[in-house]
Predict the 3D structure of the following.
Amino acid sequence: MPIATVNPATGETLRTFEALGPDEIEQRLAHAATAFAQHRTVPFGHRAELMNRAAKLLDDDQQDIARTMTIEMGKPIAAARAEAAKCAKAMRWYAARAEELLADEHPASADVSDSGAAQVTVRYRPLGVVLAVMPWNFPLWQVVRFAAPALMAGNVGLLKHASNVPQTALYLEDLFSRAGFPRGCFQTLLVGSGAVEGILRDPRVAAATLTGSEPAGRSVASIAGDEVKKTVLELGGSDPYVVMPSADIERAARTAVTARVQNNGQSCIAAKRFIVHEDVYDDFCRHFIAGMSELTVGDPLEESTDVGPLASEQGRADLEQLVEDALARGATAQCGGGRPKDRPRGWYYEPTVLTGVTPEMRIHREEAFGPVATVYRVSGIDEAVEVANDTPFGLSSNAWTRDDSEVQRFARDLEAGGVFFNGMTASHPALPFGGVERSGYGRELSGHGIREFCNITTLWHGAEPKGG
Ligand code: NAP
Protein backbone atom coordinates (compact mmCIF):
# COMPACT_ATOMS: atom_id res chain seq x y z
CA MET A 1 0.00 0.00 0.00
CA PRO A 2 1.54 3.39 -0.92
CA ILE A 3 2.00 5.88 1.88
CA ALA A 4 -0.20 8.68 0.63
CA THR A 5 -3.01 11.10 1.30
CA VAL A 6 -5.84 10.22 -1.07
CA ASN A 7 -9.01 12.24 -0.52
CA PRO A 8 -11.86 9.72 -0.19
CA ALA A 9 -14.40 12.38 -1.16
CA THR A 10 -12.82 12.72 -4.61
CA GLY A 11 -10.42 9.80 -5.07
CA GLU A 12 -7.66 12.33 -5.75
CA THR A 13 -4.09 11.60 -4.58
CA LEU A 14 -2.96 14.76 -2.82
CA ARG A 15 0.46 13.81 -1.43
CA THR A 16 2.71 10.78 -1.49
CA PHE A 17 5.52 9.96 0.92
CA GLU A 18 8.65 7.83 0.68
CA ALA A 19 8.83 5.02 3.18
CA LEU A 20 11.79 5.16 5.58
CA GLY A 21 14.76 3.03 4.60
CA PRO A 22 16.65 0.63 6.91
CA ASP A 23 19.19 3.27 7.99
CA GLU A 24 16.48 5.73 8.94
CA ILE A 25 14.60 3.06 10.87
CA GLU A 26 17.80 2.13 12.69
CA GLN A 27 18.42 5.76 13.60
CA ARG A 28 14.93 6.10 15.07
CA LEU A 29 15.25 2.89 17.06
CA ALA A 30 18.49 4.22 18.50
CA HIS A 31 16.83 7.54 19.39
CA ALA A 32 13.99 5.64 21.06
CA ALA A 33 16.33 3.56 23.19
CA THR A 34 18.30 6.63 24.27
CA ALA A 35 15.13 8.54 25.02
CA PHE A 36 13.75 5.72 27.17
CA ALA A 37 16.88 5.58 29.31
CA GLN A 38 16.24 9.19 30.24
CA HIS A 39 12.44 9.48 30.11
CA ARG A 40 11.93 6.61 32.56
CA THR A 41 13.66 8.67 35.24
CA VAL A 42 11.68 11.87 34.67
CA PRO A 43 9.32 12.64 37.60
CA PHE A 44 5.57 12.42 36.98
CA GLY A 45 5.17 16.13 37.56
CA HIS A 46 7.43 17.00 34.66
CA ARG A 47 5.87 14.42 32.35
CA ALA A 48 2.48 15.93 33.22
CA GLU A 49 3.71 19.41 32.33
CA LEU A 50 4.76 18.18 28.88
CA MET A 51 1.50 16.28 28.37
CA ASN A 52 -0.61 19.28 29.38
CA ARG A 53 1.39 21.39 26.95
CA ALA A 54 0.64 18.88 24.18
CA ALA A 55 -3.07 19.10 25.06
CA LYS A 56 -2.96 22.90 24.84
CA LEU A 57 -1.19 22.81 21.47
CA LEU A 58 -3.72 20.29 20.19
CA ASP A 59 -6.58 22.56 21.24
CA ASP A 60 -4.91 25.44 19.42
CA ASP A 61 -4.46 23.30 16.30
CA GLN A 62 -7.95 21.83 16.37
CA GLN A 63 -9.31 23.37 13.18
CA ASP A 64 -6.28 22.49 11.08
CA ILE A 65 -5.76 18.95 12.27
CA ALA A 66 -9.49 18.25 11.97
CA ARG A 67 -9.34 19.31 8.33
CA THR A 68 -6.30 17.13 7.73
CA MET A 69 -8.09 14.09 9.18
CA THR A 70 -11.20 14.74 7.11
CA ILE A 71 -9.19 15.07 3.94
CA GLU A 72 -7.17 11.95 4.67
CA MET A 73 -9.97 9.59 5.70
CA GLY A 74 -13.31 11.27 5.13
CA LYS A 75 -14.84 11.69 8.60
CA PRO A 76 -17.34 14.58 8.90
CA ILE A 77 -15.52 17.72 9.94
CA ALA A 78 -17.53 18.26 13.14
CA ALA A 79 -16.63 14.74 14.26
CA ALA A 80 -12.98 15.43 13.44
CA ARG A 81 -12.96 18.50 15.68
CA ALA A 82 -14.65 16.49 18.43
CA GLU A 83 -11.99 13.80 18.06
CA ALA A 84 -9.20 16.34 18.51
CA ALA A 85 -10.94 17.76 21.60
CA LYS A 86 -11.35 14.29 23.05
CA CYS A 87 -7.64 13.61 22.59
CA ALA A 88 -6.72 16.78 24.49
CA LYS A 89 -9.09 15.70 27.27
CA ALA A 90 -7.46 12.26 27.51
CA MET A 91 -4.01 13.86 27.63
CA ARG A 92 -5.09 16.04 30.55
CA TRP A 93 -6.81 13.10 32.23
CA TYR A 94 -3.62 11.03 32.23
CA ALA A 95 -1.46 14.04 33.07
CA ALA A 96 -3.58 14.57 36.19
CA ARG A 97 -3.90 10.93 37.25
CA ALA A 98 -0.92 8.88 36.08
CA GLU A 99 1.00 9.26 39.32
CA GLU A 100 -1.96 8.11 41.38
CA LEU A 101 -2.81 5.26 38.98
CA LEU A 102 0.77 4.01 39.15
CA ALA A 103 1.36 4.69 42.82
CA ASP A 104 3.32 2.09 44.79
CA GLU A 105 1.19 -0.58 46.43
CA HIS A 106 1.98 -1.99 49.85
CA PRO A 107 0.42 -5.38 50.55
CA ALA A 108 -0.66 -5.68 54.18
CA SER A 109 2.22 -7.00 56.27
CA ALA A 110 -0.06 -9.70 57.69
CA ASP A 111 -0.44 -11.03 54.14
CA VAL A 112 3.27 -11.11 53.33
CA SER A 113 4.99 -11.72 56.67
CA ASP A 114 5.13 -15.48 56.06
CA SER A 115 7.21 -14.78 52.92
CA GLY A 116 9.93 -13.59 55.28
CA ALA A 117 9.42 -9.96 54.31
CA ALA A 118 9.59 -7.01 56.62
CA GLN A 119 8.06 -4.94 53.86
CA VAL A 120 6.87 -5.42 50.28
CA THR A 121 6.25 -2.73 47.69
CA VAL A 122 4.68 -3.28 44.27
CA ARG A 123 5.98 -0.69 41.82
CA TYR A 124 4.79 0.01 38.26
CA ARG A 125 7.89 0.61 36.19
CA PRO A 126 7.80 1.38 32.47
CA LEU A 127 8.57 -1.42 30.02
CA GLY A 128 10.50 0.52 27.40
CA VAL A 129 10.01 1.25 23.70
CA VAL A 130 6.47 0.37 22.65
CA LEU A 131 5.57 -0.06 18.98
CA ALA A 132 2.06 1.13 18.15
CA VAL A 133 0.52 -0.15 14.90
CA MET A 134 -2.56 1.95 14.38
CA PRO A 135 -5.57 2.26 12.05
CA TRP A 136 -6.91 5.20 10.09
CA ASN A 137 -10.49 5.33 11.38
CA PHE A 138 -9.80 7.55 14.41
CA PRO A 139 -6.37 8.67 13.29
CA LEU A 140 -5.69 10.91 16.29
CA TRP A 141 -7.68 9.18 19.01
CA GLN A 142 -6.38 5.66 18.45
CA VAL A 143 -2.84 6.95 18.81
CA VAL A 144 -3.42 9.31 21.71
CA ARG A 145 -5.20 6.73 23.81
CA PHE A 146 -2.01 4.69 23.54
CA ALA A 147 0.49 7.54 23.70
CA ALA A 148 -0.90 9.56 26.62
CA PRO A 149 -0.77 6.71 29.17
CA ALA A 150 2.40 5.22 27.69
CA LEU A 151 4.38 8.46 27.88
CA MET A 152 3.00 9.29 31.31
CA ALA A 153 4.11 5.85 32.55
CA GLY A 154 7.65 6.57 31.34
CA ASN A 155 7.57 4.47 28.18
CA VAL A 156 8.45 5.86 24.76
CA GLY A 157 6.46 5.31 21.57
CA LEU A 158 7.13 4.35 17.98
CA LEU A 159 4.10 4.88 15.76
CA LYS A 160 3.51 2.87 12.61
CA HIS A 161 0.31 4.49 11.47
CA ALA A 162 -1.97 3.34 8.65
CA SER A 163 -0.52 4.20 5.25
CA ASN A 164 -3.47 6.41 4.28
CA VAL A 165 -3.08 8.92 7.13
CA PRO A 166 0.57 10.01 6.86
CA GLN A 167 -0.04 13.69 7.50
CA THR A 168 -1.92 12.98 10.71
CA ALA A 169 0.86 10.59 11.69
CA LEU A 170 3.55 13.24 11.14
CA TYR A 171 1.46 15.82 12.97
CA LEU A 172 1.48 13.63 16.09
CA GLU A 173 5.27 13.41 16.18
CA ASP A 174 5.50 17.15 15.70
CA LEU A 175 2.92 17.76 18.44
CA PHE A 176 4.80 15.81 21.11
CA SER A 177 8.06 17.37 20.02
CA ARG A 178 6.67 20.94 20.24
CA ALA A 179 5.26 20.10 23.66
CA GLY A 180 8.82 19.51 24.82
CA PHE A 181 9.12 15.73 24.90
CA PRO A 182 12.79 15.04 24.16
CA ARG A 183 13.82 13.61 20.79
CA GLY A 184 12.97 9.94 20.56
CA CYS A 185 10.11 9.93 23.10
CA PHE A 186 7.48 9.77 20.38
CA GLN A 187 8.42 9.07 16.78
CA THR A 188 6.39 8.39 13.67
CA LEU A 189 7.81 5.76 11.35
CA LEU A 190 6.51 6.18 7.83
CA VAL A 191 6.77 2.53 6.85
CA GLY A 192 4.55 -0.06 5.22
CA SER A 193 3.24 -3.05 7.12
CA GLY A 194 6.06 -5.18 5.70
CA ALA A 195 8.56 -3.33 7.90
CA VAL A 196 6.72 -4.13 11.14
CA GLU A 197 8.28 -7.54 11.69
CA GLY A 198 11.87 -6.27 11.65
CA ILE A 199 11.04 -3.41 14.01
CA LEU A 200 9.13 -5.66 16.41
CA ARG A 201 11.96 -8.20 16.51
CA ASP A 202 14.51 -5.52 17.32
CA PRO A 203 15.74 -6.08 20.90
CA ARG A 204 15.29 -2.39 21.68
CA VAL A 205 11.51 -2.76 21.23
CA ALA A 206 9.87 -4.11 24.38
CA ALA A 207 6.21 -4.46 23.44
CA ALA A 208 3.56 -3.70 20.85
CA THR A 209 0.00 -2.53 20.68
CA LEU A 210 -2.09 -2.98 17.56
CA THR A 211 -5.48 -1.63 16.70
CA GLY A 212 -6.79 -2.93 13.42
CA SER A 213 -7.99 -6.01 11.63
CA GLU A 214 -7.76 -9.59 12.75
CA PRO A 215 -5.11 -10.62 10.16
CA ALA A 216 -2.88 -7.73 11.20
CA GLY A 217 -3.40 -8.58 14.88
CA ARG A 218 -2.64 -12.23 14.34
CA SER A 219 0.58 -11.40 12.50
CA VAL A 220 1.87 -8.93 15.09
CA ALA A 221 0.86 -11.14 18.02
CA SER A 222 2.57 -14.20 16.57
CA ILE A 223 5.82 -12.33 15.91
CA ALA A 224 5.67 -10.82 19.39
CA GLY A 225 4.91 -14.25 20.80
CA ASP A 226 7.96 -15.63 19.05
CA GLU A 227 10.02 -12.84 20.65
CA VAL A 228 8.19 -13.18 24.00
CA LYS A 229 7.08 -9.55 23.97
CA LYS A 230 3.92 -8.20 25.53
CA THR A 231 1.07 -7.19 23.19
CA VAL A 232 -2.30 -5.52 23.44
CA LEU A 233 -4.70 -6.14 20.56
CA GLU A 234 -7.77 -4.06 19.78
CA LEU A 235 -9.33 -5.72 16.76
CA GLY A 236 -12.67 -5.70 15.00
CA GLY A 237 -16.15 -5.81 16.39
CA SER A 238 -19.71 -6.53 15.36
CA ASP A 239 -21.44 -5.23 18.43
CA PRO A 240 -25.00 -6.26 19.20
CA TYR A 241 -27.63 -3.66 20.10
CA VAL A 242 -30.50 -5.39 21.84
CA VAL A 243 -33.86 -3.66 22.24
CA MET A 244 -36.39 -5.09 24.70
CA PRO A 245 -40.07 -4.07 25.07
CA SER A 246 -39.59 -1.99 28.22
CA ALA A 247 -37.16 0.39 26.47
CA ASP A 248 -37.93 3.87 25.22
CA ILE A 249 -38.22 2.69 21.62
CA GLU A 250 -38.03 6.05 19.92
CA ARG A 251 -34.88 6.99 21.81
CA ALA A 252 -33.39 3.55 21.22
CA ALA A 253 -34.01 3.92 17.48
CA ARG A 254 -32.63 7.46 17.34
CA THR A 255 -29.50 6.43 19.23
CA ALA A 256 -29.21 3.35 17.02
CA VAL A 257 -28.79 5.56 13.95
CA THR A 258 -25.87 7.42 15.55
CA ALA A 259 -24.42 4.20 16.94
CA ARG A 260 -24.38 2.67 13.46
CA VAL A 261 -23.23 5.58 11.29
CA GLN A 262 -20.76 7.38 13.57
CA ASN A 263 -17.50 7.87 11.66
CA ASN A 264 -19.30 6.91 8.41
CA GLY A 265 -19.98 3.51 9.94
CA GLN A 266 -16.28 2.73 10.32
CA SER A 267 -15.95 2.32 14.04
CA CYS A 268 -14.96 -0.88 15.79
CA ILE A 269 -17.46 -0.14 18.57
CA ALA A 270 -20.28 0.88 16.27
CA ALA A 271 -23.43 -1.12 16.91
CA LYS A 272 -23.75 -3.30 13.82
CA ARG A 273 -26.39 -5.92 14.63
CA PHE A 274 -29.74 -4.69 15.93
CA ILE A 275 -31.57 -7.42 17.81
CA VAL A 276 -35.14 -6.42 18.55
CA HIS A 277 -37.88 -8.11 20.56
CA GLU A 278 -40.85 -9.02 18.34
CA ASP A 279 -43.27 -6.96 20.47
CA VAL A 280 -41.47 -3.73 19.52
CA TYR A 281 -39.84 -4.80 16.24
CA ASP A 282 -42.20 -2.94 13.88
CA ASP A 283 -42.12 0.21 15.97
CA PHE A 284 -38.32 0.18 16.25
CA CYS A 285 -37.85 -0.54 12.53
CA ARG A 286 -40.18 2.29 11.51
CA HIS A 287 -38.18 4.85 13.52
CA PHE A 288 -34.78 3.34 12.70
CA ILE A 289 -35.32 3.06 8.93
CA ALA A 290 -36.74 6.58 8.83
CA GLY A 291 -33.70 7.87 10.74
CA MET A 292 -31.21 6.08 8.49
CA SER A 293 -33.04 7.32 5.34
CA GLU A 294 -33.01 10.94 6.48
CA LEU A 295 -29.24 11.18 6.96
CA THR A 296 -27.36 13.66 4.80
CA VAL A 297 -24.68 11.87 2.82
CA GLY A 298 -22.15 14.26 1.36
CA ASP A 299 -18.89 16.16 1.38
CA PRO A 300 -17.36 15.58 4.83
CA LEU A 301 -15.99 19.13 4.89
CA GLU A 302 -19.59 20.45 4.91
CA GLU A 303 -20.89 21.10 8.42
CA SER A 304 -24.30 19.68 7.49
CA THR A 305 -22.97 16.26 6.44
CA ASP A 306 -23.92 13.29 8.60
CA VAL A 307 -22.21 10.57 6.57
CA GLY A 308 -19.14 11.08 4.39
CA PRO A 309 -17.38 8.63 2.07
CA LEU A 310 -15.72 5.41 3.15
CA ALA A 311 -11.99 5.83 3.69
CA SER A 312 -10.83 3.72 0.77
CA GLU A 313 -12.05 2.28 -2.49
CA GLN A 314 -11.18 -1.20 -1.21
CA GLY A 315 -13.20 -0.61 1.96
CA ARG A 316 -16.24 0.28 -0.10
CA ALA A 317 -15.75 -2.74 -2.39
CA ASP A 318 -15.59 -5.03 0.68
CA LEU A 319 -18.80 -3.56 2.06
CA GLU A 320 -20.56 -3.84 -1.31
CA GLN A 321 -19.68 -7.51 -1.50
CA LEU A 322 -21.06 -8.17 2.00
CA VAL A 323 -24.37 -6.50 1.10
CA GLU A 324 -24.60 -8.17 -2.31
CA ASP A 325 -24.01 -11.56 -0.71
CA ALA A 326 -26.83 -10.92 1.79
CA LEU A 327 -29.24 -9.67 -0.88
CA ALA A 328 -28.46 -12.63 -3.15
CA ARG A 329 -29.30 -14.99 -0.28
CA GLY A 330 -32.63 -13.39 0.46
CA ALA A 331 -32.07 -10.37 2.73
CA THR A 332 -34.07 -7.20 2.07
CA ALA A 333 -32.63 -3.68 1.92
CA GLN A 334 -35.23 -1.53 3.73
CA CYS A 335 -33.25 1.53 2.68
CA GLY A 336 -30.00 2.12 0.82
CA GLY A 337 -28.19 -0.92 -0.53
CA GLY A 338 -25.86 0.80 -2.98
CA ARG A 339 -23.91 3.89 -3.98
CA PRO A 340 -25.73 7.21 -3.84
CA LYS A 341 -26.64 8.24 -7.40
CA ASP A 342 -25.77 11.88 -6.83
CA ARG A 343 -22.18 11.14 -5.74
CA PRO A 344 -20.37 9.77 -8.80
CA ARG A 345 -16.94 10.66 -7.38
CA GLY A 346 -15.51 9.48 -4.11
CA TRP A 347 -16.22 6.32 -2.16
CA TYR A 348 -19.70 6.94 -0.86
CA TYR A 349 -22.19 4.32 0.25
CA GLU A 350 -25.81 4.80 1.25
CA PRO A 351 -26.93 4.24 4.85
CA THR A 352 -28.48 0.80 4.58
CA VAL A 353 -30.77 -1.33 6.74
CA LEU A 354 -30.97 -5.05 6.00
CA THR A 355 -33.68 -7.33 7.37
CA GLY A 356 -34.19 -11.05 6.85
CA VAL A 357 -30.53 -11.80 7.61
CA THR A 358 -29.78 -15.49 8.19
CA PRO A 359 -26.70 -17.29 9.58
CA GLU A 360 -25.48 -18.46 6.16
CA MET A 361 -25.01 -14.87 4.98
CA ARG A 362 -21.48 -13.53 5.36
CA ILE A 363 -22.72 -10.36 7.06
CA HIS A 364 -24.10 -12.45 9.92
CA ARG A 365 -20.57 -13.24 11.09
CA GLU A 366 -18.31 -10.67 9.40
CA GLU A 367 -17.85 -7.06 10.38
CA ALA A 368 -19.63 -4.52 8.16
CA PHE A 369 -17.21 -1.58 8.17
CA GLY A 370 -19.52 1.10 6.81
CA PRO A 371 -23.07 2.45 7.30
CA VAL A 372 -24.86 -0.89 6.99
CA ALA A 373 -27.11 -2.24 9.75
CA THR A 374 -28.66 -5.67 10.09
CA VAL A 375 -31.88 -6.02 12.10
CA TYR A 376 -32.96 -9.30 13.69
CA ARG A 377 -36.37 -10.13 15.18
CA VAL A 378 -36.24 -12.25 18.36
CA SER A 379 -38.96 -13.77 20.51
CA GLY A 380 -37.47 -13.18 23.98
CA ILE A 381 -34.37 -12.65 26.05
CA ASP A 382 -32.96 -16.16 25.53
CA GLU A 383 -32.98 -15.74 21.78
CA ALA A 384 -31.69 -12.17 22.09
CA VAL A 385 -28.65 -13.34 24.07
CA GLU A 386 -28.11 -16.24 21.68
CA VAL A 387 -28.14 -14.03 18.56
CA ALA A 388 -26.03 -11.35 20.29
CA ASN A 389 -23.34 -13.91 21.14
CA ASP A 390 -23.46 -15.63 17.74
CA THR A 391 -20.41 -13.77 16.46
CA PRO A 392 -16.67 -14.38 16.52
CA PHE A 393 -16.20 -10.91 18.05
CA GLY A 394 -16.63 -9.64 21.59
CA LEU A 395 -15.74 -5.96 21.70
CA SER A 396 -18.73 -4.20 23.26
CA SER A 397 -22.52 -4.56 23.36
CA ASN A 398 -25.60 -2.47 23.98
CA ALA A 399 -28.85 -3.41 25.71
CA TRP A 400 -31.98 -1.31 25.97
CA THR A 401 -34.30 -2.31 28.79
CA ARG A 402 -35.82 -0.88 31.96
CA ASP A 403 -36.33 -4.30 33.49
CA ASP A 404 -33.79 -4.99 36.23
CA SER A 405 -33.83 -8.77 35.82
CA GLU A 406 -33.03 -8.30 32.11
CA VAL A 407 -30.21 -5.91 33.04
CA GLN A 408 -28.74 -8.60 35.31
CA ARG A 409 -29.10 -11.24 32.60
CA PHE A 410 -27.35 -9.13 29.94
CA ALA A 411 -24.63 -8.12 32.41
CA ARG A 412 -23.97 -11.79 33.07
CA ASP A 413 -24.33 -13.26 29.60
CA LEU A 414 -23.35 -10.83 26.83
CA GLU A 415 -19.87 -11.98 25.82
CA ALA A 416 -18.03 -8.71 25.25
CA GLY A 417 -15.62 -6.28 26.90
CA GLY A 418 -18.50 -3.93 27.69
CA VAL A 419 -22.27 -3.81 28.09
CA PHE A 420 -23.78 -0.34 27.65
CA PHE A 421 -27.35 -0.07 28.94
CA ASN A 422 -29.82 2.40 27.45
CA GLY A 423 -27.14 4.22 25.50
CA MET A 424 -24.45 3.57 22.91
CA THR A 425 -20.93 2.36 23.41
CA ALA A 426 -18.37 5.14 23.55
CA SER A 427 -14.78 5.31 24.72
CA HIS A 428 -13.82 7.59 27.59
CA PRO A 429 -10.49 8.07 29.38
CA ALA A 430 -11.90 6.69 32.65
CA LEU A 431 -13.51 3.55 31.16
CA PRO A 432 -11.54 0.38 30.38
CA PHE A 433 -11.72 -0.34 26.65
CA GLY A 434 -11.10 -3.64 24.88
CA GLY A 435 -12.58 -6.95 23.92
CA VAL A 436 -12.56 -10.69 24.18
CA GLU A 437 -12.50 -13.48 21.58
CA ARG A 438 -11.61 -12.24 18.07
CA SER A 439 -11.83 -8.63 19.20
CA GLY A 440 -8.47 -9.00 20.92
CA TYR A 441 -7.15 -8.80 24.45
CA GLY A 442 -5.74 -6.35 26.93
CA ARG A 443 -7.30 -3.04 27.82
CA GLU A 444 -6.72 0.57 26.89
CA LEU A 445 -7.71 3.68 28.86
CA SER A 446 -8.40 3.99 32.61
CA GLY A 447 -5.94 2.59 35.15
CA HIS A 448 -6.03 -0.77 33.38
CA GLY A 449 -4.71 0.78 30.17
CA ILE A 450 -1.77 2.59 31.72
CA ARG A 451 -0.65 -0.58 33.55
CA GLU A 452 -0.59 -2.74 30.40
CA PHE A 453 2.88 -1.55 29.45
CA CYS A 454 4.34 -1.60 32.93
CA ASN A 455 6.69 -4.01 34.61
CA ILE A 456 4.79 -4.79 37.79
CA THR A 457 7.81 -5.07 40.05
CA THR A 458 7.88 -6.72 43.48
CA LEU A 459 10.30 -4.99 45.88
CA TRP A 460 10.82 -7.39 48.77
CA HIS A 461 12.77 -6.46 51.89
CA GLY A 462 13.78 -9.33 54.14
CA ALA A 463 13.09 -9.17 57.84
CA GLU A 464 16.09 -9.06 60.17
CA PRO A 465 16.40 -12.30 62.15
CA LYS A 466 14.77 -11.94 65.56
CA GLY A 467 17.13 -11.15 68.38
CA GLY A 468 20.12 -10.64 66.21
P1 NAP B 1 -5.62 -3.03 9.13
O1 NAP B 1 -5.53 -3.29 7.70
O2 NAP B 1 -5.37 -4.14 10.06
O3 NAP B 1 -4.65 -1.81 9.44
C1 NAP B 1 -4.37 -1.38 10.76
C2 NAP B 1 -2.89 -1.14 10.88
O4 NAP B 1 -2.20 -2.37 10.78
C3 NAP B 1 -2.31 -0.26 9.79
O5 NAP B 1 -1.28 0.52 10.33
C4 NAP B 1 -1.76 -1.26 8.80
O6 NAP B 1 -0.73 -0.74 7.99
C5 NAP B 1 -1.21 -2.31 9.73
N1 NAP B 1 -1.12 -3.65 9.17
C6 NAP B 1 -1.92 -4.24 8.27
N2 NAP B 1 -1.52 -5.51 8.06
C7 NAP B 1 -0.43 -5.72 8.84
C8 NAP B 1 0.42 -6.83 9.06
N3 NAP B 1 0.24 -7.99 8.44
N4 NAP B 1 1.45 -6.69 9.92
C9 NAP B 1 1.63 -5.54 10.57
N5 NAP B 1 0.86 -4.44 10.41
C10 NAP B 1 -0.18 -4.54 9.55
O7 NAP B 1 -7.03 -2.48 9.57
P2 NAP B 1 -8.00 -1.56 8.75
O8 NAP B 1 -8.79 -2.42 7.85
O9 NAP B 1 -7.27 -0.42 8.17
O10 NAP B 1 -8.87 -1.00 9.98
C11 NAP B 1 -10.09 -1.46 10.25
C12 NAP B 1 -10.11 -2.55 11.31
O11 NAP B 1 -9.61 -2.06 12.54
C13 NAP B 1 -11.52 -2.99 11.60
O12 NAP B 1 -11.58 -4.38 11.77
C14 NAP B 1 -11.84 -2.30 12.90
O13 NAP B 1 -12.86 -2.87 13.65
C15 NAP B 1 -10.53 -2.36 13.57
N6 NAP B 1 -10.48 -1.36 14.64
C16 NAP B 1 -10.50 -1.80 15.92
C17 NAP B 1 -10.51 -0.89 16.97
C18 NAP B 1 -10.53 -1.34 18.39
O14 NAP B 1 -10.22 -0.54 19.25
N7 NAP B 1 -10.86 -2.57 18.69
C19 NAP B 1 -10.48 0.46 16.68
C20 NAP B 1 -10.45 0.88 15.36
C21 NAP B 1 -10.44 -0.06 14.35
P3 NAP B 1 -1.02 -0.29 6.45
O15 NAP B 1 -2.01 0.80 6.50
O16 NAP B 1 0.32 0.13 5.98
O17 NAP B 1 -1.54 -1.52 5.77
In short: The domain at 3-235+439-459 is CATH 3.40.605.10 (Aldehyde Dehydrogenase; Chain A, domain 1). The longest strand covers residues 117-126. The chain has two domains: 3-235+439-459, 239-421.
